[in-house]
Amino acid sequence: MTATIETRTVAPPVTTVRFHQVGKTFGQSTKAVVALDQVDLAVGPGEFVCLVGASGCGKTTLLNLVAGLDQPTSGRIELNSSRPAVVFQEAALMPWLTAAGNVELPLRMAGVGKAARRATAAELLELVRLAGLGDKRPHELSGGMRQRVALARALASTTDHTGAGAGKPSLLLMDEPFSALDAITRDVLQGELLRIWRATGTAILFVTHDVREAVRLGQRVVLLSSRPGRVVREWNVDGLTDGAEAAAVDEVNAALRTVISSHAA
Amino acid sequence: MPPEATRVHPVDDRDAGSVEAGLDALDTPVTAYRESPVRRIAARALPPIGAIAVFVLIWQVLWAAAFWPEFKLPAPVAVWDQIWQLVVSGEILELFWTSVHRAVIGFAISLLIAVPLGLAIANITVVRRGVGPLVSGLQSLPSVAWVPAAILWFGLNDRAIYWVVLLGAVPSIANGLVSGLDQVPPILPRVGQALGAGRWSGIRYILLPAALPGFLGGLKQGWAFSWRSLMAAELIATSPDLGEGLGQYLHNGMSLSDISMVFAGILLIFVVGVGIELLVFRPLENSVLRARGLTQGVR
Ligand SMILES: Nc1ncnc2c1ncn2[C@@H]1O[C@H](COP(=O)(O)OP(=O)(O)O)[C@@H](O)[C@H]1O
Ligand SMILES: [Mg+2]
After folding, report:
1. How many domains does chain A have?
2. CA of A63, closest atom in ligand 1
3. Which residue in A50, A141, A172, B211 could disulfide with A214, CB within 3.0 to 4.6 Å?
4. Does the ipTM surpass 0.90?
């Protein structure tokens, strides 16, 4: 398989996050799993980048490295943002807290005062169109609503601009956030995410295995190979019209199929 | 697959919002129908009351048939008379106070010891490997076994009794906390970390509340063990200095060969043990479970 890097975007002068030859290996010697190998990737301020790849290719690992939940084994990651907000595939709301309580949680842990917490939580719930539902418990909400609370909570974790990240651009990391939802809900939430992205100006690194979702949402789509995960190719898909968008979906899909079938032998 | 057919175009913001509102309305789980409180209480209270009535009836019949001599099986009425006497003379208050306040104090001290212990076992591997099996082992060792040692160490006094209660309750509470912490879904501490939790704020805001249902189970068992151990200790370590608790009352019944007094003692010990569980732990557990939507666990 020859990895063709078609569109090497000229890196903007300031990047929110930049990977320098990042590698991640799990385990030791013979049983070692090389999850990521020599990954170079950059996300500019306010940019929306989608990462696609087959299951097990290291997408989650990559996000964990950016989020600081794990450390790379080689290379380095340059992060120029406030604490990245993370949304996982499961909403993973704290079941003992209300929706508002969940959104307030990162602020509480950062030592933000009660009144300020309340105000921020109300604002963020409004942003995800859940104003007035702050008193609901997670089990009283639908899957889509839970994921929106999780998004609001993640955004709350970056809004504390008092620490080291003060004044820096924000970064939102999303790991297949909509893949557990039904088709209509997923479609609506994709629209919501675009609206929130425009409203907040945050950079987004969005992981999915759904090529159509990646092309619809992202300005740039990055394809990752499997075992080891490497950046195979990137596409600029910003502002495509319907026909061009469908063509782009087909093209990315074809490339993804090639990557996957290279593992058949 | 024609791409046009599978793509939905969000026409404008307001339109997307109304679709979303509709979805929210349709997808929100419907809260289950709740029957009236009177019926709910009746449905829960009637079966045990019925069971008790049947039990007393069988007892009465066995007594009337005179299978066993009167000094082995008393009449239900004779036992009731004993209890009524305690109530009329006010003696029952002293019995309850002596035993219950000891159990509560013993339980509270156990809690203070068991929580740090459980946290250490759950979070520190060396401690888990070293102390964990010891604590589990202590849980299966009947704490009555400590009574002789406690009397030799401390003499016949409250300290000996508390020692026995502690050894009964601490392992249960600590183990309950450990199993509660072990059952926390691993995603929650990870989310906490992503939200900026440090070591202590992670324990305080995520791990402890997440472990609460399991911990409550441990507390309940810890209470049962503390009550049991206390009764065993009171029954064996009797002395005029110690004041009269339910265990001593039971012991006196045996010394006086008064079977109706012995039965009354057993009954009162049972009532206090079950009563505290029903009045304190059950409601606590139910409210915690209900708040988390774990309604099938609510009794
Ligand atoms: N903690 C871990 N220990 C060992 N191997 C891991 C660990 N996490 C992930 N892996 C391996 O790394 C590879 C990439 O995993 P992951 O990042 O979860 O993939 P994706 O999210 O793209 O499905 C997989 O082969 C997986 O088995
Ligand atoms: Mg994954």
Report:
1. 1
2. 17
3. A50
4. no
The verdict on residue A62 lying in a domain is yes
State how far residue A27 is from chain B, nearest Cα, in angstroms: 20
Classify domain B105-242 by CATH number.
Answer: 1.10.3720.10
Mean pLDDT by 10 residues, chain B (299 residues): 44 63 78 74 85 90 85 88 90 91 93 92 91 89 88 88 92 92 91 89 90 90 90 84 86 91 92 90 88 74
Pocket of ligand 1, candidates A22, A24, A26: which has the most ligand atoms within 8 Å of its Cβ, to mutate? A26
Tell me, yes or no, whether A3 lies in a domain.
no
Q: What is the CATH number of the domain that holds A185?
A: 3.40.50.300
A85 to chain B: which residues are within 8 Å by CB?
Answer: 194
**What domain range is A191 assigned to?**
26-34+44-70+81-264
Q: What is the pLDDT of residue B10?
A: 46
Lay out the sheet containing A74-79: strands in order across: A33-43, A17-26, A74-79
Residue nearest to atom 8 of ligand 1 (CA): A61
**Domain residue ranges of chain B, discontinuous segments joined by +:** 105-242
